[in-house]
Amino acid sequence: MVDRKANAKTSLDVLVAGAGYVGLAAAVSLKQARPSLAIAVVDAAPAGVWQKDGRASAIAAAACRMLDQLGVWAEIAPEAQAITEMTVTDSRTADPVRPVFLTFDGEVAPGEPFAHMVANRDLNGALRGSAEKLGIDIIEGVAVSAFDLSGAGVTVHLADGATLKARLLVAADGVNSKLRDMAGIKTVKWEYGQSGIVCTVAHERPHNGRAEEHFLPAGPFATLPLKPSKDGNRSSIVWVERTEDAQKLVDGDDLVFEHELELRFGLKLGEIHLADKPRAWPLGLTLARAFVAPRIALVGDAAHGIHPIAGQGLNLGFKDVAALAEVVVEADRLGQDIGALDVLERYQQWRRFDTVQMGVTTDVLNRLFSNDIGPLRAVRDIGLGLVERMPRLKDFFIRQASGLSGDTPKLLKGEAI
């Protein structure tokens, strides 16, 4: 148990900053593989805030395998919705017909969908429960105010006066990571002038597990299937608009919002209405110039914040967790210092190129599709049509979307470390 008295110094092996999905997954992955490691999680957000998150996330097949290996998927699965089909269109909002340019089957293997939609509160609750069962202390409502290197460890000072000492500090504190700044790690960063509107929509007819992404001039509009509730059929919406228009829509009248939503959603699933209050987040690209520094490793949005056009943000974070856990556990088994820079650089070499590649890819896709330039529209539609006619290329994209391509960490294959 972590001693929270102001003058107490608690020694840990790993301290994770951030009790979101990625931070908790990092703590659980390490503790499950090496029960001897003393691990704690500290989070600046007040207790209970993560259970108020009404959003849902697309969890790729590889991440589902990892959650299963961590023992939490069985708890999540009953309320998860498999994505059984994906369609892509490219059109203007006012177009009476939206031709489908690209379709994907939703399986990477027989009976294994390439992704599931999972309620964020279910995901966080399952990971939190697992962390507590493993004896991981979760300190909430307290921020890290400073840290300094001290020989074979890092001394972390909390805002309430407590001091913790660890061999490794894992920064999972989001895209505006304060720990990243404290470590002196610079970023490549720019804004898109777009915001992502997120909400849940109730509709009359079933979605049958089909996800759709419409490329519209202002940005992509994605419809993602959710598990039906007692109130009926539901889908999650990720709607990218120019920031000034997005804010007006979210702050304005619900009837105006529903009218604009209907223009994009259509009536193929019958009558629709808002099931919760829409919210908007500004979108940009943030890539850390380094993923590690002495005694510190960045994971999740602290290392990379990318455009949601490919739905890979959280899945990249889980890939970070799987790679870091594998590196740290193997180093500990060999008696190496888990916070030493040469150990952490193995994690950086594993993850940095893949992450930069995904960041560049989403950036290019957003610039290519978020416009209404005639010649560019013709080129991209021809490209989509060619992919539709090439089964092997479609299979490649499915593997990419499922997180099962490239040098995949063991946890993402469903294997123990």
Helical residue percent band: 25-40%
* Cα separation of the termini: 26 Å
Q: Residue-averaged pLDDT, rounded? A: 89
Strand content: 25-35%
Number of strands: 22
CATH topology of the domain at 9-53 and 119-189 and 285-367: FAD/NAD(P)-binding domain
Shape annotation: globular
- Look at the structure and give the CATH class of the domain at 9-53 and 119-189 and 285-367: Alpha Beta
Under the CATH scheme, the architecture of the domain at 9-53 and 119-189 and 285-367 is: 3-Layer(bba) Sandwich
CATH superfamily (homologous) name of the domain at 9-53 and 119-189 and 285-367: FAD/NAD(P)-binding domain
Radius of gyration: 22 Å
The helix/strand class is alpha+beta
Detailed description of the structure:
This protein is of the alpha+beta class and 417 residues long. The protein has a domain at 9-53 and 119-189 and 285-367: FAD/NAD(P)-binding domain, CATH 3.50.50.60. Helix content is 34%, strand content 32%. It is built from 11 helices and 22 strands. The protein has helices at 21-33, 61-69, 73-76, 120-133, 178-182, 243-251, 254-265, 313-333, 341-369, 374-388, 391-402, and strands spanning 9-17, 39-43, 56-60, 81-82, 85-90, 100-105, 107-109, 112-113, 115-119, 137-140, 144-150, 153-158, 163-171, 187-203, 210-216, 219-229, 232-242, 272-274, 279-288, 292-293, 296-298, 304-305. The strands form 4 sheets. Strands 5, 6, 14, 15, 16, 17, 18, 19 and 22 form a 9-stranded mixed β-sheet that branches. Strand 1, helix 1 and strand 2 form a beta-alpha-beta unit. Helix 1 (21-33) runs parallel beside helix 8 and helix 8 runs antiparallel to helix 9. The longest helix has 29 residues, at 341-369. The radius of gyration is 22 Å and the shape is globular.
